[in-house]
Specification:
The chain has a two-stranded antiparallel sheet. The chain has 2 domains: 46 residues, no CATH class; 209 residues, Orthogonal Bundle (MetI-like fold). The longest helix is centred in the N-terminal third of the chain and has 34 residues. α3 crosses α4 and α3 crosses α13. Helix content is 77%, strand content 2%. The protein is globular and about 70 Å long. The chain is built from 13 helices and 2 strands; from the N terminus they run ααααααααααααββα. With 266 residues, the protein is mostly helical.
């Protein structure tokens, strides 16, 4: 029994890490070596793919663009979801449950449904090919998810804390920023993580609403074809670099995610 306790999880982790290792392995190979056949380790170790990504403006600008609109979307989504979640948790009003359900239905819709309307709308407003366009488009999916997660965390805070703060003379903005937000810090961390991850991996809207100035790294990766085929080593290196931001975010919010699972909202 003791053997199974560590053997099964170890084998499962190895199975999950195998594609990541293979991607890392390919990133240090040339395209010819990758096409040459199976090998666990690079025969001719090279970092040429990473050098090209870090020195070619087309590539590193793709990463910068992605980070800008993802960060912008995360800030907007959490900022708007916090007061909305507080209202759903603390107050009862006409149609509150229907409105809450409607928000979740927006999250269930596929991004392809909104690609054309967003394209026409932002083109008319002059927002096409801008970071703000992608950030606002992703808000349609992230704000409902953020409201749903935060509402669960806020409902776990006793109402007596609100009443005590009002009796002590706190205004609502001061109470909300100084007392309430620190109490739900774990919920804000979990919410920011999910907003970041959806916006970071979403491709369709990000590719449709940008062309040159705000083109994300995911769109750049789809344009690596040449007369000799795809540059597989370059794609692998770009894939490795796209994993790093998500890994960093997971490292800092890992404890918050565990609390979210414990509270039943994640």
């Amino acid at each position: 029994m003791r053997l199974h306790r560590w053997l099964v999880p170890t084998l499962y982790i190895i199975f999950l890490m195998l594609p990541i290792y293979w991607l890392l392995n390919m990133s240090f190979k040339t395209t010819n070596e990758i096409l040459g056949g199976f090998s666990w380790f690079p025969a001719n170790f090279t970092i040429a793919s990473y050098v090209k990504i870090l020195t070619d403006p087309t590539w590193y600008n793709g990463y910068i663009n992605s980070i800008i609109y993802v960060g912008l979307n995360t800030v907007i989504s959490v900022s708007f979801a916090l007061p909305a979640a507080y209202a759903f948790s603390r107050y009862r009003f006409l149609g509150d449950k229907h409105l809450f359900f409607w928000l979740l239905t927006n999250r269930m819709a596929p991004p392809a449904v909104f690609a054309l309307p967003f394209l026409q709308l932002y083109s008319a407003l002059g927002l096409f090919d801008s970071h703000l366009a992608v950030a606002l488009a992703h808000c349609l999916f992230n704000i409902p998810l953020a409201v749903w997660i935060l509402e669960g965390f806020i409902s776990g805070v006793p109402r007596e804390i609100d009443e005590t703060a009002y009796l002590d003379g706190y205004s609502f903005p001061r109470f909300f920023t100084k007392i309430f937000m620190p109490l739900i810090g774990s919920g804000i961390g979990v919410t920011a993580f999910f907003c970041f991850m959806f916006s970071w991996v979403e491709l369709l809207l990000a590719k449709t609403l940008t062309s040159v100035e705000a083109k994300p790294i995911a769109a750049v990766m789809t344009r690596t074809a040449s007369t000799s085929g795809y540059e597989l080593g370059l794609l692998a290196a770009a894939g490795v670099l796209t994993i790093i931001p998500g890994a960093i975010v997971i490292y800092f919010v890992r404890n918050y995610i565990a609390k979210g699972f414990a509270m039943g909202r994640v």
